[in-house]
Amino acid sequence: MRRTPSNVRSNEAVAYARVSTKDQEREGFSIPAQLRLINEYAAVHGLKITETYTEAETAGHTGREAFGRMMNALKSPGTCRTILVEKTDRLYRNARDMVDLNDLKVEIHFIKEGRAVSEDSKPSDKLVNTILTATAQHFLDNLREETRKGMLEKARSGLWPSSAPLGYLNTPGPNGKKIIVPDPEMATHVQRMFERYSTGRFSLRQVAQLAVDEGMRFRRSTGPMPAETVRKMLKNPIFNGRFVWDGVEYEGSHEPLVSVETFDRVQEVLQCKRAVPLRITEIMLAYKGLMTCRHCGCAIVGQIQKKRYTYYRCSGYKGSCHEPYAREEVLDQSFSEQLDLLSIDDEVMGLIEDGIRKLSEEGETDRVGAMNEANQILRALKGRQELLYEDRLEGRIDTATYDRKAVELRRKTRSAEERLAALKNPSRTRGTERPHSGTLELARTASREYSRRSGPEKREMLDYLVSNCSWGDGRLDVEFKHPYALLAVANAEYRQKKAAGEPSDGLCQLWYPRRDS
Predict the structure, then answer these.
(1) Helix, strand or coil, per DSSP, at residue 310
(2) 54 and 181 housed in the same domain
(3) What pLDDT sits at residue 431?
(4) Is residue 19 part of a domain?
(5) In the 8-state DSSP scheme, what is residue 307?
(6) Sign of dihedral through CA atoms 232, 237, 243, 246?
(7) What is the number of other CB atoms lying within 10 angstroms of the CB of residue 109?
């Protein structure tokens, strides 16, 4: 008969139930089913359940919270010494758990197996318990190995074998295997994170914060994403169509969210640490760091007063400067007027597009030649892949070498395929029919669109269009970036000559593009 401390009521017990997978719940091993069995058993044997511990996670991994709480409770003086559980593999699945419970000198009732084990059990009963525990551990070890093999085989076939990363969703594939597809709600946010960081102007925290401000939501946290988490995300090749599994990189069959070019540019920024850290308040100040004072050359800085009004002034770093404060609204109007220098009328738009069409006809030969070259590169890469595969089949190289070289070849192949696709699509290729349509449309509507945008959007637009800006005596001077600088000069000359009544033939020559020499 088992010994019970005098301060413990012998009819008290705790219940423990666990499921490790959704499949087990569907197969009748749900927690409610286990608890019904335990409660019925307790009622028949006159046991009072004082505490119930349940959890839905694998027992093969550390971190079973309910099991740990039960162990701590049983260590306290005066607690009951009986555990009711459905069967062996619901309670422990390794020898360590069995030893820990034996040290507590508790009595365990394995209800479905019709047996109970305590420190007073016969040696034969203890041996049976040890064998059943070892069998459970062997089953778990074998399950782990089979799972690992299955996931590795899935990775080798180009399928991501785990939970989908942010920006993707897990979904059943055509053959029943789970695949990852772009998340229609989050994929765009992930793409913008890569695009912003690739410019080198944003810090890791800013990239995450801007994504949250635009509606991005993280799965495991409602707070800001830590900078190190953002770094790992931007370094993860899965967004570029590749992934690393068990230390080996594979070419994925899923749809990439970012191009090879953007991903590589992000890696360069991360490696060279070229991202300039701007404080969030600086992002709110659309013109901070964009202008210098025309009088002394110092930076024009901004500040918010009374939480409503934004002013800009010379920093006075080189000494006192008499340049007065300027309201942000004044600068808004000044920048809008400068952007109006890019605005071209319908007649000019037609002239430029006609010239570009003529130029694209001349460049068609170059495009065809580039396509032929890209096709040759692709054929060479595919030939190298076939030779590599033959080397592996013949045993001339090992698996690790094959995997490493195969990934590199697939990466080069994909880059060449992207280049060929761009050449085949005139809308994406420089030198074809409308390569500057986006540039022209932006120039045409810049002033109007600028007035409609928010502070951060205005800054993003200015960073794209202008470089050196100076402010002084209520006047703004800007230098446009290429090719907008040429457009601004030509447009100013066009307006001047048109106002002077110059014949249209002379005006047309201003807008005909020339091929680079």
Answers:
(1) strand
(2) no
(3) 40
(4) yes
(5) T
(6) negative
(7) 22
124 and 40 in one domain? yes
Beta strands in 86-128 (DSSP E): 107-110, 115-117
H helix intervals, 104-186 = 123-156
Residue type, 172: P
Q: Which amino acid is at 498?
A: K
Cβ neighbours, 10 Å, residue 254: 20
> Does 271 share its domain with 199?
yes
**Nearest Cα to 111, choosing from 34, 1, 200, 205?**
34
Token output for 65: 């919270």
pLDDT confidence of residue 505: 60
Residues 80, 81, 86, 89, CA torsion sign: positive
Q: Which domain holds residue 407?
A: 364-429
Residue 185 CB contacts under 8 Å (≥ 6 apart), including other chains:
none
For every residue of 318-355, which 3-state class applies, written as one string?
CCCCCCCCEEHHHHHHHHHHHHHHHCCCHHHHHHHHHH
**Alpha-carbon span 469 to 292, nearest angstrom:** 6
Dist CA 40 CA 23 (whole Å): 25
**Is 118's pLDDT higher than 80?**
yes
Indicate whether 307 and 273 sit together in one domain: no
Structure confidence by residue, pLDDT tens digits, 19-57: 875 544 444 458 888 999 999 999 999 999 999 999 876
* Residue 416 structure tokens: 């060449």
Helix H segments across 157-306?
A: 187-198, 204-213, 227-235, 260-272, 280-284
- Tell which of 394, 429, 464 closes a domain: 429
**Per residue, what are the HEC states of 464-510?**
HHEEEEEEECCEEEEEECCCHHHHHHHHHHHHHHHHCCCCHHHHHHC
Q: How many residues does the chain have?
A: 517
Which residue, of 88, 121, 143, is where some domain finishes? 143
The runs of H, that is alpha helices, within 157-259 are 187-198, 204-213, 227-235
Q: What percent of the chain has pLDDT over 70?
A: 81
Residue (of 279, 311, 289) closest to 459 by Cα position: 289
Sequence letter at residue 430? R
CA-to-CA distance for 226 and 228, rounded, in angstroms? 5
CA–centroid distance for 516 within its chain:
39
Per the structure block, which two tokens stand in for 426?
């005139």
| Residue whose token pair is 């420089």 | 430
Run of H or E including 449: helix 437-452
Distance of CA 135 to the CA centre of its chain: 42
pTM of the full predicted structure? 0.44
Amino acid at 355: G
293 beta partners: 471
Q: Smallest Cα–Cα separation from 29: which of 15, 40, 19?
A: 19
How confident is the model over 230-274, as pLDDT tens digits?
Answer: 899 999 999 989 998 888 888 888 999 998 888 988 888 887 654
